[in-house]
Predict the structure.
Amino acid sequence: METLKKQPFRPHFSRKLLAIPYGLFLAFFVVIPLLIIIYYAFTDDNGKFTFEYLRLFFNESGGGLKGFLTSYNFKTIMRSLFISLVSTVICLVIAYPVAYIIAKCKLKNKSVLLLMFVVPMWVNFVLRINALKELFIWLGIYNKSNTWNVVNTIIGMVYDFLPFMILPIYTTIIKIDNSYLEAARDLGSTGARAFLKITLPLSKAGIMSGVSMVFLPSMTNYVVSNYLTFRNVKIIGKLIDDYFMGDLWHDGSLIALLLLLFMFLVTWLTGGFQADEQTETRGTSLW
Amino acid sequence: MVKLRSILKWSFIALILLFIYFPIIFLTINSFNESDVIQTGWSGFSLDHYRYFFDFENEPIRVVGQTILLAIVVALLSSIFVTIGAIGIFYSKKHAHNTLSAMNRIPVINAEVVTAISFALFVSFFNIDKSTYIPLLLGQMILCTPFVVLSILPKLRQMDNNLYEAALDLGASPTKALFSVVIPQILPGIIAGFLLSITLSLDDYVITAYTKPDSFMTISTHIYGLDKNNVVGPKIKAAYWAFTAIIFFIIVLVVIIVNISAYQKTRSKKR
């Protein structure tokens, strides 16, 4: 009887209020820092609003468009784009067959085989890159020439990010209902045609997720490029790092801001904003 | 024909596995090499690098210890904090839910170097002292929490919501219902998020480098620093080969155990 009486007075506990601390955490430590980047990109040392750093970025050495196209910044951006495009394509070319073979094989314990591709990630990332570097030294291709440095960087990126491409593709392929393929076969379709018309389109979400997990980090992960090339290959991540290490915060912030905008563009194009948690790579599928 | 295809298939898999494992195996072999310079080649079997690694007088093992400690603290903080947050996000109205999810995605899609410098600017803007370890802990939490959210939310969606209501109807307080009904159901997600946080924290270089106290070192910053300053600490470097080898042995052990247990499971099913 007593509990019944008490009930109306009990303030209704609202579970959504639990989101407040984490919401504040994100607002303070994620959103505000990004606003500070914007602030630094468009103010000078006295805190006055300026487009000076934007102008400097595009017109470093003067000479208009032609000057920009031959500038250090532009070359670095192009080099980063080249390295990350090639790395992404190689990762995809390796990862898709691997994921497909594992998903379609008749072994009972596919996950054990998949695990073998994932467990090297338990070795610390810099240690793994260090192993690769020692191997390059032994093979005599460490810091041999500029071309080798770029090649070694790409090998390093592929070596490091390959699991991020394999996992989401595997997750989408394994989910494809086998009855679609059986239906295609019954209706007289060849294996190759069924693959192109059914498996490939249905695994598109995994490919997109994998591409975004490899493309963006391999443009900016300067630990790989620095470590494997005796600091001779500069990518855009290192460019930002250099500006900050040289206390040129305004220039650095501007490039960080441009990179941020580029990230949003790529994520929007690859549909990353709609991606559900199911295809999230570094997430649960790892375990 | 079928056989040839299968041979091609499995040799492709083997080739990629070789690519993934060869550098680590190469380093493991060299960890038993007496020399600490790779170029000199094999100069005899020795456990010197292991002895050096396990000597607490030397830096590497202390650095490994504090890296693991940091990872555990960060993972604990992140998973407890996010469990509360994720439950909140899950029950929020659509608008708030979308805003929070969008904010949560920012560190996931953002380049780590941008996250790192933006947070480093924040730290210097508000004059927070790096030697208090607060920037380091917060910085690593920014890295980990979004992924913990992404591993807990799907579990909340799979949860049977009636159980919580039933618990309330049977007289449980909301807190009690939360702890004894909701939390157990999403526990696999929390554990996955915790483990993921540990690997993210252990691996991280960029955010750590920008937020750590000057004297503090993690595995990543220590090795990278050795290379950067070109202070050739061959002994220290070789000690890390030994550490790599130890992790490699643990990995091999885990894979074998998982294999055996999976094999036994399928066998007991057959019976």
In short: The radius of gyration of chain B is 24 Å. Chain B has two domains: 2-48, 58-246.
